[in-house]
Amino acid sequence: xxxxxxxxxxxRAVFLVNIPVSLVVPALSPKLLEDRAPRRPTxxxxxxxxxxxxxxxxxxxxxxxxxxxxxxxxxxxxxGLIVMVVFGxxxxxxxxxxxxxxxxxxxxxxxGFPAALxxxxxFFAVTNGLMVVIVLHLQLGLGTDVLNSGRTLAPxxxxxAVASWVAGAIWSDATGTT
Length: 178
What we know:
The chain is mainly alpha-helical and 178 residues long. The protein has three domains: 1-29, no CATH class; 43-109; 110-178. The chain has five helices and no strands. It has helices spanning 18-28, 45-63, 70-96, 112-141, 146-175. Helix 2 (45-63) packs antiparallel against helix 3 and helix 4 (112-141) packs antiparallel against helix 5 (146-175). The longest helix has 30 residues, at 112-141. The protein is extended and about 55 Å long. Its main location: membrane. This is Transporter. The chain crosses the membrane at residues 12-33, 45-66, 72-91, 112-138, 153-172. It is found in: Membrane.
């Protein structure tokens, strides 16, 4: 699909793979087991807005979405962190009030969840960063085309899938932890 150049889209035709997926998922959804919450959850619009603003203020300077001076970037990150603290306080307030928070604060009561969150975030940050560097080196440094770059990373993806399955299905059952 990377060489299809459908409608002059160049490599972007690869995103058309989402069309069959978007047709299969709704067709298979009736086969899923139904799971209902004890009460119907409500939408936390304020929490959603705070999370969106906080993450945006932190992420935009980190990815270089705009070229402002460093002090403006640091100011945006600090403002984003403050908004995220307000978000956390809001989530606690919503949960105490009996409404549905966007993120359930009780998840953070046990040490395992925050530790797993930090570890998985670190893992995926490193993994995604490494994959970007490898792809750029293959394509820009060695002149490899998109298809061969993808083939080069296929064993890595298979290895991640197998390791994830082993960790989730076998290791957690053996240790009694998730």
